[in-house]
Batch of 3 targets.
Target 1
Amino acid sequence: MLSNYNELQDRWLNNQLVGLDVIITKSGFVTPIDIEYVENDNLTHTFRKEYSISYGNSSTLEELFDNYDEPWSEIQINDQILINNEYFILCGEGEMGNEGFIVKTDIHNNISWMLYSTTSNPFITIKKIGDIVYVQSSANFYIAVNPVDDSVSIVNEDIQNRLK
């Protein structure tokens, strides 16, 4: 398990991540995700789309690497934020135009958690409001990350209203 995490870490340092629809934790758990949308004319902020996230059955990094010979995607970081002088949340895009990622690292750039989506569009900006970190997709929805327990949810409305 450790060698698989080490490979993930080494690839991260070389601007690569697992380019599949997954959440990966430092403990080596891999949870498939699906970010999809339905049409909703009331949501003009997200171009009349209501996004949601669903989760598959968890497995391990070892199983992922057994099933995929070359799961890696080149990445580009678009934004980052330091939280409590303890860790960073970073976001960006994969090598295809529709891919986005969010990564949490310690202050030494060691990955503790990551989310990669092939359907989210690139993640472009990060804002912290209270205890929650909001990572904006170029499709204008947000992934809300609780950096304490790494739980995520999707917010479809403009978070500027939450700043007031």
Note: The two ends are 45 Å apart (CA to CA).
Target 2
Amino acid sequence: MAEKHQDKMTNAMNNSKLYLIQSFGCQMNERDAESLAGMLEDLGYCPTSAQEEADIILLNTCCVRETAESKVFGLLGRLRKLKVAKPDLILGVCGCMSQQEDAAKRIRRSFPFVDLIFGTHNIHELPRMIHQVQENHEAVLEVWATEKGITESIPVKRKDKLKAWVTIMYGCNNFCTYCIVPYVRGRERSRQPEDIIDEIKELVQEGYKEVTLLGQNVNSYGKDFKNNYRFADLLMAIDDITGLERVRFMTSHPRDFDQRLIEVVASAKKVCEHYHLPAQAGSNRVLKMMNRGYTREHYLELIRKIKERVPNASITADLMVGFPGETEEDFQETLDLVKQVRYDSAFTFVYNIRSGTPAAKLEQVSEEVKSERIQRLIELQNLISLENNQREEGRVLEVLVEGETKTNPDLLAGRTRTNKLVVFQGSGHLPGQLVQIRITKGRPNLLEGEVVPNGT
């Protein structure tokens, strides 16, 4: 049963105090950062982008890839001088990396000036832990070994005013052999549907147009319930919310994307025609070593079923290169999978060792081979992305306007229902509007277009 968040301590802080949160990693971490920001602002802190101005700095860490950990350790080293100059600065490390016992100990040993270390299971305790640091003038290391249910009603400070992340579940039960997530995020726990629906209704009242439902595997939503309420049921309920324009979700596990879910996403008016389905590899031998729980044939049949019901569906994926034991033949099967599916885009990455996972003990592929293969994969996917986007030329697509582009204030940017980025001229259109755009140019990573007068 969800417990209510009660640790506010608003009067303990001064409004002039500033905070900075730097996040690494996935969308779940971005959403966690919004909760951290919400609690800090409840305590009277205001955001800043300047480290030297901050009274509290939180590094919200990731441990999925070694590069993210290296960035955190490098940043901590650079923050040492700032901590010496500002001894009252509260410096904290949280998130997936600090949830690992070895990493937390390493932080404490190598960076003793860090004031606060906590993990993924107790971020709602942040106000109390800050108060403890200030009152006792000593560091707090508090990493819960296991999850203790779901805490609702945590304050949230969202970065976006149009689109919102909405977490529907936490944890993962899949234990892919390369992945550390189940060890740092815990077992799967689903939020109650009424809590999710209430949150989305509040977002709509605040002017939000689009929500993205988050979970390590959203298709597993509800499997921990005693009744038969599942992800498809939740989508149908959300689709009925008045005023909401668009619904997205991620991430889906190909093994659990069943026919009922396909029928629901095909018929729901607000669920966008974009499905992120991480394949990871195209070789059955590698998929088995990864413990993915499906075959290449199952994956391709799933894609066929989705496109049969949703012909204009956009399919994206995660693809890994260099898993231990991957041969050139295995890699060729991944390339062939990409050619068959013709992803609109793909997040491609090189496998790197995660201590504590089964794959770390296997014979590794050389860095030289991994580097060569990832370049071949990227080149192939970029070509397919370009060809797919060029096919959009001449079509009129609905675009949710997000605002000015970062590089040119005369251009606006927005996204289609299939999650393609579109840039166009149209300064009269305010963010949040749905406009009809005729696509004039397809590029590998975006579409260019022009506003269709009166939407015709």
Note: The first helix runs from residue 27 to 42.
Target 3
Amino acid sequence: MKTFLKKLALSVVCLAALSIGGVAIAQNSDGFTDLIDGVSLSGWNIIGSANWVIGNGIVEGNKPNGFLVSTKTYKNFVIKAEFYAESNTNSGIFIRCQDPNKVSQSTCYEINIWDTRPEQAYATGAIVDVAKVDPVPKAGGRWNTMEIIANGPNFKVMMNGVVTVANGQDSKYSEGPIALQSAGGVIKFRKLQIKPL
């Protein structure tokens, strides 16, 4: 009987480990789930020709143009990210994407990471074509934190603890995958977590 119970317990543990597939890697005690582990791209699809490198707990995009697109969709949530950008990096975190094979600012909400964007009102910390930022927080040359809250038509963005979008409003897209962009310069993500609302 003890042998049977040991085998049963081992089987349950193995099944639980196997069921972790997809984007959701591990849920933390604070209710957030890790979306990247810095070891694999499990749960993500590569779209475009960007070069994505994984190592030392980091997911890095270092060549344009492309995206990592989550295989799961999300509706209302809080995202916490830690990223490194060069001063010329063109990147962003796209949410509620409508077509996972055609990611753009016109099919998703793009929370921008691009210090040198020609139209500075939608540079780093803004939601492109939805919520402007002034002044533009500079991300280049350092590690940064970003928090994104999407709850129905309401959006809030914070970067390095400072609110960049206090009350963004838009109702075009209600849910969809998340996408990470590599469109120029180096972008590194060492943390990407989500908690449903």
Note: Helices lie at 2-18.
